[in-house]
Write a structure and sequence with these properties.
Helix content: 25-40%
Radius of gyration: 27 Å
CATH class of one domain: Alpha Beta
CATH topology of one domain: DHBP synthase
Number of helices: 21
Structural class: alpha/beta
Shape: globular
Bound molecules: zinc ion, fe (iii) ion
Distance between the termini: 51 Å
Number of strands: 31
Amino acid sequence: MTSACLIKVRGVVQGVGFRPFVYRIATELHLSGWVLNGQEGVAIHLEGDEAHVQSFLDRLKSEAPPASRIVEMDVAPAATAGFQNFSIKESERNQRPTVRISPDLPVCNECLREMADASNRRHQYPYINCTNCGPRYTVILALPYDRPNTTMKDWPFDEYCDREYHDPANRRFHAQPVACPQCGPHYYLRVGEETISGDDVVIRRTVELLKAGKIVAVKGLGGYHLACDARNVDAVAAMRARKFRKEKPFAVMVETVAAAEALVELSADAKELLTSIARPIVLAPAKRELLGVAPDNRELGIMLPYTPLQHLLFAAGAPPVLVMTSANRSSEPIAYEDDDAFDRLSGIADAFLVGERPIARRVDDSVARAGAWGPAILRRSRAYAPGAVTSFPLPSRTEKSILALGADLKNTVTLVVEGQAFVSQHIGDLDHYDAFRAFEETIRDLMTMYQIRWEDVVVVHDAHPEYRSTAHGLRLPCVEKRAVQHHRAHIASVLAEHGAWARLALGISFDGTGYGDDGSIWGGEFFVGSLQNGFERVAHLRPAALPGGDAAAQYPVQAAAGFLAQVEGLPSLSDAPFSFPSRYAAALQLVHKKVRTFPTTSVGRLFDTAAALLGFTRHITFEGQAAMWVEHIARGAGEVDCYPFPFLNGELDFRPLLQAVAMDRIKGRNIADIARAFQRGIAHGVAEATKALARSHNVDVTVFSGGVFQNELLLEDLKAELGNTGLQLWTNQAVPANDGGISLGQAALAFFDDMKKKYRDAA
Ligand code: ZN
Ligand code: FE
C-alpha cells in the first residue's frame, strides 16, 4: 500500500552528512520524495510502500551519521504527490534559524585512509574533509550552512570536487568545506623573513624545527597553537619564559591512545572522553613527570590529533609528545587571525605554520575530566560550542530570546532561542582588553547568527555592579535587563543541565568570589529552592574579613590575614615555620583598623589561607593555583583523620579548622598529612551541613557548583561522606562548575522569572 508522510527532524542534523544519508536509505528502499535543510532542521517528504516507510523511520534513528544528534522527530501523514524519484532540494531560507550549528568534527577514518594513500587525489592534503568530519563552527560566517556562507567561499571547486559535491552517493555530497590540492587552500611556513610553500615540504621543515627544540606556531581549527617537543626541557622552559606563563600547566598532544596511556592513567571513562568526537584535552593522573610541563600537578592535560595537519605532523616524525598550548601571551585570548598572530607571537614562536583557510571565530580546545562524579567539562569550547546544552520547557515559549552575559572570569555567554540554550565557547577573563573584545564579538556573532533583534531580547547580567559584563549589559540597546546573583546562577546551571525545572533542591555554591545580596563577597553559600521559585540563602561559611577585597585573591597571605585574625592563640606568623612575608602584617593592620576591608564568606579564600599556612606564601600566577596546590600536596598523604569544621546555627565555622592546621604545622607534622586532614575536614563539615539542611528543608536533591568543586579530592571525599545517605548528588557535567557555567544559570533563572511573570499577569 502506498502512503506518504512529512518528517521533521530537529537537532544536530545539518553539516553532518544527514541529507546524503537520508537520500541513500530512501533510494535503497525505493521511496520517492525529497529532503531539504530547513530553518528548523531537516524536512523529508516520503512516498511509497508503507512497510518501506516504516523501515525508513527505523533506520533513520538507528543508522544516523555519527556526528548527528536527533533531538526531536515529528512524523505527519501527507498527501501523495506522485514523485518519481527521491531528490535533495535546495535549502530553505525564510524564517529565523533555530537550527543547531554543528560543532567542529575531528578528521574521520575514511579521510585519514585517503590521506595516507599515495594514489589518492588528496594524498597528504592537510585540508581533507567530508560530510562526516572537518570544520563547521570555525568556518561558518552565516546561516544556512552553505559554501558561500563559509570561509571557503574564496576557493571555487575544480571539476573533481564539484562532481563529488553534487553526487548524492558520494561521501562529500554537500560537504561545504570540501577541497583538494588542485582547488583548495594550502599551508605555508614562515621562518623569519623566509616563506616556504608546498604542503609536504613545510610539514617536513616544521618537524625538523620541532625536533631541534624550536617553538612553532601552528594554525589549527579555532586558533593557533604553540607547539614544541614536550620532552625537551629547554624548549619547554623557553616556551614558559617567552609566553610569560610561569607555572600554569601546558596541554600535550600524542598520536595514539597507546601513547597517551604511556603518559597518564586512563580510566574507561577518560578513554571515552579522549577518543570522543569532541577530542577534548583530558586531565588524567600523570604516570611520569614531563619536566616543566605541568609543575606541582598530579594531572596532565592530554589530547589526540583532530585535524589532518596534526596527523600529518606525527606521520612525518614529529616528536611523539608535543606541547600544544593556546597561542597567546599569558592570559590573552588565543590568536586566530594570521596578522594578529604574527604580531603577537613574533617574540614567542621561531616559525609559523600557516594555513590559508581563514578561521571564522576564535575557539579554544575544550578541557574535560572523567571525575569522581562522572565526566565533566571544565572548559567548554571547541567541538562542544555552540551546541545547545539544554532545552527549556516548551511550548510555553517566552516570546523573547534571552541573552545571558556570564561572569567576568572564564566568561561565556548563553543565548536562549525558542527554548534552546546555546552556550558560547570559552571567552576568557574580561579584565583583559582583547578578551573583552572577544566577548563583544561573540555576542554580536550569536545575535546575528540567530537573527535576533535587540528589541526581542532580555539581557541578563551578574549582580556585581563593577563587573565589565554588567556595565556592558547596561549599555546594550534592549529594554529588558535583569541581574542574577552569582552563586544562585551556579546552582541554576546544574539544574538547567538536568532539566530539573520544578525540582526543589539544596544548592551548595562554593567559589572564590561573587557579589552577594548584601554587597559582601560571597563564595560559601547554601541555598534552598527551585528554578521556578528561586533560591533562598539558608546557610553559609562564617564571615571573615578580606583586606583589599578581590585583589587579595592574588596573595594567599593577604587572604589569610582576614581569616586568621579570628583564630586565637597563634604565634607570630612572620617566624618559622610560617615565614609569612611583610604583606601579611600590612594586611593584618588593615583588618584591625577595618580599612579597605570587606566581609567575605569565600571558601576559595579559605583554601588560600590553608595554602599560606602550609607554605604557599608567594603570589599566585593563575586563578585557583593555591587551592590546586593544597589538593596536590594532600594527595601525597596517608590515612588521616579530619580536622573539625563544625556547622552551627547556619554557619560553617572555619576557626577550629585553621587552628588545627596552624598547630600541627608548629608541631612539625608533615604538610601532606595536614593538607589531607584539612581537605577531609572541609568535606566532613560540608557533608554534615548538607545532611542537616536537607533534613530540615525536606530536600533529597543536593546540587554542588562553583569553582571549588573542580577539586577532585573534595568530590571523592564528599561522595564517601554522602554516597549512601539517600541524597542525590548533582554537579555540572555539560557546562563547567567554574564561572564558565554562570551564563547558563543566569539564562535559566531569567527564563523562569519570565514564566512566573506571565502566570501572574494571566491570573
Ligand atoms: Zn572525512
Ligand atoms: Fe563563581
